[in-house]
Amino acid sequence: MPTTHELLKKFKEIKTLPHVAIRLSKLISDDSTPMAKFEETIRMDPTLVLRLLRMVNSPYYGLRQKVDSISRAVVYIGMKNLRNMLVVQALKEIFNSGEKEGVFSRRQLWLHCAAVSICGQMITERIFQQKGEDAFLCGILHDIGLILEDQVEQKLFLQTLETWQAENRPLIECEREIIGTDHCSLGYGLAKDWKFPLEVQETIKRHHDSRKEVEPSSLLGVIQISEFIVSKLKYSELTGMNPTLSSSLSDHIRGNVKEYKAMTQDLPEEMAKAEDLYNS
Predict the structure, then answer these.
(1) Quick check: pTM over 0.85?
(2) 154 found inside a domain
(3) Is residue 202 part of a domain?
(4) Which of 73, 148, 174, 178 could form a disulfide with 164 if both were Cys (CB 3.0 to 4.6 A apart)?
(5) pLDDT tens digits for range 169-219
């Protein structure tokens, strides 16, 4: 039975974030990094330059004047949004490679992660009036461990899903029994290796732990609420996956039910608006 370390090593040999994405993530984590350093790094990747300018000039941002410089584009979208754009583009390549019909759909997982990322950002910004870039990042990454299992140990992964469906036990329990680890631990390992924020790492590691009380405004609380909401809107990562909430999160939603209803009504439109970011 492979260890978490062995699976991570095998995955990183075949799939990794581009070098420039990792370098930019490190620069973003340092508040003292000058803008010139970002521009110098971005220019190393002509494809990234095109994506950046295409994105900032898209209807999603609705700017009246065309932006044609890297520095101005970064100012408009922000450092963290730049990092998130890189992650989305890199993960698209991973999610879309080698799709096969069967018990597991990479397309379904991609839609789930996109929904959680958008919903998480909306909750953070609308409900808690905080910046939502890290919630977006965590949402798009939180289930990357499932893709890792699918690509590195596909036979064991499919056996795990069949066992989960047949026995109706927690997925993580089945993963640990058959694969030897779980997608939360694997996702945490990747996020740590990719130098993402510590709270993002910890939330990926714990996003299925609904037994403990969680502060609703924390990143973990936001992602757990997002998973619950998007599952009700038919954006589950696996057919039959129905996440539960701790009492603190349930009480929070009941206490803000009008705000959440309004936000939920806007979610499909937000996903449609963001479609250009995924399909560009």
Answers:
(1) no
(2) yes
(3) yes
(4) 174
(5) 999 999 999 999 999 999 999 888 887 889 999 999 999 998 889 999 999
